[in-house]
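step: validate -> pass
step: tokenize input -> pass
step: predict -> running
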Amino acid sequence: MKHKPVSVGGSHDPEGPLARLLQDEIAGLRVLDRDFVIALGPPERRADWLGVDRDGRLVLVLFVEIGDEVVATTVLTALASATEARAAAARRWSGERLRTDSEPCVVVVAQSFTTRGLRGLSFLDSPHVIALELRTLESAAGAQPFLIRRTLSAQSAAATVDPQPFSTWPAITRAEIGLLAHAIERIDPEIERRDTADASSWHWQGVEIAHATSADGRLVARAEHSPTAVPFDETARRELWVEQFLIAHCARRAGATPGARPLDVLDRSAGPLLSAEELAAFQD
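step: predict -> pass
step: emit ->
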């Protein structure tokens, strides 16, 4: 963990302006010591300040760099170390009325946190962790530093980790891609499906062979046999696309290249390319 990039006037003086800013966030904060060892390492880790707040809680303050994405690990180490050190700290600073029955607080300060860093802090799901960003108000009158508190919520962090694919799609379009995926997966179990928030793609031997997404509320798909995106505005269109995909994939496995025929000009007057029994074999 990288330390001491955050400062006001280039100083981490416990009696300086940064300490006064922190006192606005942590009521009654008094800094008792500096460079408190939280892990012997390697690497050795230290909290920049050790203090006590108005309620007698032991407080550790960490100053971290922009982009420190392992900050949650260090904060967790600091929480554990502070919990173990409560009694010893109370004896050492007996005049400060440190309470051994209160959970310690860890305050982490940065000029800004990355999304990943905030997510990690949120997953700690601890009311005893406070994340502050140091900002500066600049005008003709000069520069005025201030702190803002970042919201740490395990619920919001979990919601951003893995958004449900297709959550913004209409229900009928989500149902359509489910049917399409089922049909493709029945054709060849070696075909790999990959989902993102707004699309599905299918890969064979590391190569993308089909792709589907939503456009104007309709499922739209393309593949090697149909490089032009085809909207599935009716069931017959999806079934025809799947039939052609099956033929193309069989040829692909055999090492041949089938002749391409656009969906919109394919003559279906003689009936489907596959019988109802053959189509049902991989659609069920």
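step: describe -> Helices lie at 17-25, 71-92, 115-124, 154-161, 171-187, 235-254, 276-283.
step: cleanup -> pass
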